Amino acid sequence: MKTVRLTAAQAMVRYLSKQQNEDGVPFFGGCWAIFGHGNVAGMGEALHGIGDDFPTWRGHNEQGMAHAAIAYAKASNRKRAMTVTTSIGPGATNMVTAAALAHVNRLPVLFVPGDVFANRAPDPVLQQVEDFGDGTISANDCFKPVSRYFDRIMRAEQLLTALPRAMATLTDPADCGPVTLAFCQDVQAEAFDWPESFFETKIWKSQRPRADLDQLEAAVAAIKAAKQPMIIAGGGVHYAGACDALAEFAHRHNIPVGETQAGKSSMPWDDDLNLGSIGVTGASSANAIAENADLIIAIGTRLQDFTTGSWALFKHPERRILSINVAAYDATKHNAIAVTGDAKVTLAEIGGMLGDYRAPAIDANLKSDWIAAVDKVTAMPTGNALPTDAQVIGAVQRSVDDDAIVVCAAGGLPGELHKLWKAAKPNGYHVEYGFSCMGYEIAGGLGVKMAQPDREVVVMVGDGSYMMMNSELATSVMLGHKIITVILDNRGFGCINRLQMATGGESFNNLLDTARHVVPSAIDFTAHAGSMGAIAEKVSSISELEAAMERARKADRSYAIVIDTDPLPSTDAGGHWWDVAVPEVSVRPTVNEARKNYEAALKQQRPGD
Description:
Blueprint: E1 3-7, H1 8-17, E2 19-21, E3 28-33, H2 43-50, E4 56-58, H3 62-75, E5 81-86, H4 90-93, H5 96-105, E6 109-115, E7 149-153, H6 159-171, E8 178-184, H7 185-189, E9 191-195, E10 202-204, H8 213-225, E11 229-233, H9 235-239, H10 243-253, E12 257-259, E13 274-277, H11 284-292, E14 295-299, H12 305-308, E15 320-325, H13 328-331, E16 337-340, H14 343-354, H15 364-378, H16 389-399, E17 405-408, H17 413-420, E18 429-431, H18 440-451, E19 457-462, H19 463-468, H20 472-479, E20 484-489, H21 494-502, H22 525-531, E21 535-539, H23 542-554, E22 559-564, H24 589-602
Helix pairs in contact: 1-2, 3-5, 3-18, 8-14, 10-14, 11-15, 16-17, 16-23
């Protein structure tokens, strides 16, 4: 057996550089790195040595780097991913939030945080977390509950088994999610005689598991028996490359479709059978069908509470759930008729077995009325009042072409975008709403641009999220990956302020002007974005925003546009109740009234049915 002598870190990056997807493209788009004493000598030297065969990208914040890596994977439909390495201690734990985000959204990313000395000779090292009752604990144990696969590399040769296991997880359609290989810093630098065969090119083909025949037959029987079926398209439609298959299936059998946040853009917005978003932030058209549907065909979705209206949306007394999902964990939720298999293959097989079955026609006015409502709230405003989020969305929509990708994550904007954005092409809508993580937006936009360099990427972000994490705007300038960032300044956390008031509370500690302060906040977002190298300007109206968008699209580097908005309005049309518990006891009449309404709404829930 031929061997080659390398350090463990050198072996890791060489192995990772040899992994390819079925298109013959490197599976990893490189490694994001911020170096510290836990990884600079080992991983740093290894990454420098391999050069462009496994490119290293430098970020400004560990969580931001990880968000960019995750967005890259999502925008690549999980066919590609990235690695992120950090030092021991705070550098590592800064990534735990991102790991949770990837875990919730079933997205692949490889975390390689530095770890303690395996030999324990210098213990405790700088930044080491010590457990008084367990000598094996380090800060990286925080990753365990938010990793699909976790390993601590304490001997170099452990990589011979750990790395293939990591790749198997990252490329498995059902188990896909974050992998953490906590890399002891002394082991990174240790040499070992590695089999040369370990570094041969490996091609990881997309797996398309087929459902059991009994499951398919049960699904077909349920659909044929249904009088008012409906499809809910989730993110799994994108990841399976099943957008065309979904459209063909829906039209062949005349079944209307509603889209989750992750599933939005799986069908063009103007397709007659695409009734728009569903659930708490849903279109009136899709929600009206959902309320009366006797069969919900859930494809590639976790059926989280925003999709189901906290399980109060589906009101048909005999309604059933048919869940098509590659993960049995998701397919079997809520007493569903489970079909465990790849969405693209499963739709083709069920479609073939259904024959000429067609569902009854739906009321065409549902969609036309909804689009009219969308056009009304997104239209150019009249008067001098501060614009709403919806009006800003309308201006951005009118300013870009069908290839554009809109990116968002948290606050009120995801709800408005889910209702109002007209996504024309697959992956044109990139909103992280599984974890709804503030601070994802700009870093995520950078990752999307790296994955889709030929498409315009527009990040929409509120001032609250911008303040939480904005440093990767500088990274986008540094790396030459242009993104357009529209910053909506409503002076605080406007979405939660609205929720606070809707549950009977008073505006408190959410808007800057109702929070405790000595000096009123006066943040100059234009100057701040400009200081990071972006071209930046502030506009005072929707017409000025559209003109600025035209300049931004022609610019040669990242561009930031700031606009003041009203924190109170949101789109009244569409939507659905969401379960947010209201206090049973309060001295405030508004809270007591909200509690009565809450108890009445609870009676509509059917969580176990």
